[in-house]
Amino acid sequence: MPKYRIALMPGDGIGKDVMEAAQIVLDKIALDAEYIPADIGWEFWCTEGEPLPERTVETLKSCDCALFAAITSKPKEEAEAELAPELQGQGLTYRSPIVRMRQLFDLYTNLRPCKAFKGNPLNFRDDIDLVVFRENTQGLYAGVEFHPLPEQVRSALESHSPRMAAFEGISSEDVAVSCRIFTREGCQRIVRAAFEYAASHGYPTVTLVEKPNVIRETSGLMVREARKVGQEFPAIELWETNVDAMAMWLVKNPQDYGVLVSSNMFGDIISDLAAQLVGGLGFASSGNIGDAFAVFEPTHGSAPKYAGQYKANPTAMLLAVKLMLDWLGETDLAQALERGIAAVIAETTFHTYDLGGENTTLEVAQAVADRL
Ligand code: IPM
Ligand code: MG
Q: What is the pTM of this model?
């Protein structure tokens, strides 16, 4: 029996292109693994009303981890219009499958390294080496939202918050509420993951990115827990910044920062900013990591207009494979893969269009494989 069972979820659009690229590299390194293809994405929403079918959830439960590429998602009304006729009018709502997987499998850490590879013409600066730890299951992504505001929720809010007086006389039809939910444990575990990573990878600081001066309760809880967890790591300094200022500092002095940690939505935003500093989403990978399971993905979307054209830069997907190898404990393979990726970027012989080259997704992946 192979050592690992790994689910492969290409999804749609360029997801399929970059998953093929990943397979070229996986074949080359001959990881002792069985790969199980699994359905996910837009076509399953249209034909089954479910972009993450139950059979895929079952497959995932039987695997050690998964590689996921990209899927299309569309706003509510557009999504409903594309459902098969027999599925329309049943009140089905499109929910992002990646967000669902994060919650279903309690993948509370979203690890997003953003490193400037030597010779990447798209680097904003050449000395950037940031790693974003984004809380991945709570906050504004908890999915607790109301519109119109139900009477019970309204009266609970009115009796608990004097601020609700400002909404007096406004109809519940005209109020929408999205809850930002943090738990103490949720804060502790993401901060601890960030500190542990800083400690094991030689980063001297962890920067907490929140907004406690305004969002007092949730950000406040995160700050207090971060200070407590920080005491367990006396060699690592905890820096605290507000998210807005962080956006500015990341553009001004990105080289000053190492590990960043933030809640779900702020982490989502900050990690796109950090990705663009090192070449954009073509270079950004994520690990969605829980205690027992993990899903690795490039951060980019499915870019439907490029589907099947093999134009997309496979680097983000290959870096996701690298994160997976690290997580599996295959550290030597992970390092070799990163060296291969770095070499292809530095050599400039095999580059996709975003880097000014003319090579295809698969040619670049093959070039990386050849250097392993
Ligand atoms: C990301 C993406 C997702 C998110 C979308 C596709 C739901 O932006 O992984 O950063 O918001 O988390
Ligand atoms: Mg995002």
A: 0.97
